[in-house]
Amino acid sequence: MSERIIEGPDCLHEGAQWLAGREPRFAHAYALTGPLPLRWRREGFGALVDAIVSQQISVSAADAILRRMKAAGLTGPRKIIRASEDELRACGLSGQKVRYLKALASARIPYAQLREMPLDAVISTLTAVPGIGPWTAQIYAMFSLGRADVFAPGDLALQEAARLLFGLPERPKPRALARMAEAWSPWRAVAARLLWAYYRIEKDREGIR
């Protein structure tokens, strides 16, 4: 695999400097945010549970659900498969997310092999599982696998941060934001971290767990 892997703060700084050198608005944002957080996450089943739970809800709401799941011992695939829908919904999960988590628990994702797969193969492998859409797969590739050139254009906080930073009249749609992000390759994952950090400053709240 020849794709760049983010291995620590030095990689983030290198990527941010590269972005700042090519886009003055990123230079402005980086001056405000300072060093960017790695946001590393563990690999495997638990990371995808976190991502599914976090879909389309606030950071604080996702944290609360995950705490309830942990307190109830609903963490591993076998426990989720055996749990009733009522037990999972009692943690705050919607019926749809209950179905997604059970599908994930039953899937045989080759987690170790994902590290060596090209990004396109990682995304297609993950999105074959019900409930794992492009956003969830992209977040996994970004934070659990450390891929440097992945972006999540469907993320609402990234859309809003791009609107603010680039002075756009409205939030860019996913396709438009993906086109914008092409200019940020090979450091699109660093651009995402920079936009999330800028969002936190502008909105005074986190845009990503």
What does this protein structure show overall?
With 209 residues, the protein is an all-alpha fold. The chain is built from 13 helices and no strands. The chain has two domains: 9-39 and 149-203, Endonuclease Iii, domain 2 (Orthogonal Bundle), CATH 1.10.1670; 45-144, Hypothetical protein, domain 2 (Endonuclease III, domain 1, Orthogonal Bundle). The model has no long low-confidence stretch (mean pLDDT 95). It has helices at residues 9-22, 24-33, 45-54, 59-71, 77-82, 85-89, 95-106, 111-114, 119-127, 134-144, 156-166, 174-181, 188-203. Helix 1 packs antiparallel against helix 2. Helix content is 62%, strand content 0%. The relative contact order is 0.17. The radius of gyration is 17 Å and the shape is globular.
CATH class descriptor of the largest domain: Mainly Alpha
How helix-rich are the residues, as a percent range? 55-70%
- The domain count comes to 2
- The rounded Rg comes to 17 Å
CATH architecture of the largest domain: Orthogonal Bundle
Largest sheet at a glance? none
Q: Low-confidence segments, ≥5 residues, pLDDT <50?
A: none
Q: Which percent band covers the strand fraction?
A: under 5%
State the distance separating the first and last CA atoms. Answer: 28 Å
Looking at CATH, which topology of the largest domain would you report?
Endonuclease III, domain 1
Structural class: mainly alpha
Number of strands: 0
Look at the structure and name the CATH superfamily of the largest domain: Hypothetical protein, domain 2
Overall shape: it is globular
- The topology string of helices and strands comes to HHHHHHHHHHHHH
Number of helices: 13
Mean pLDDT score: 95
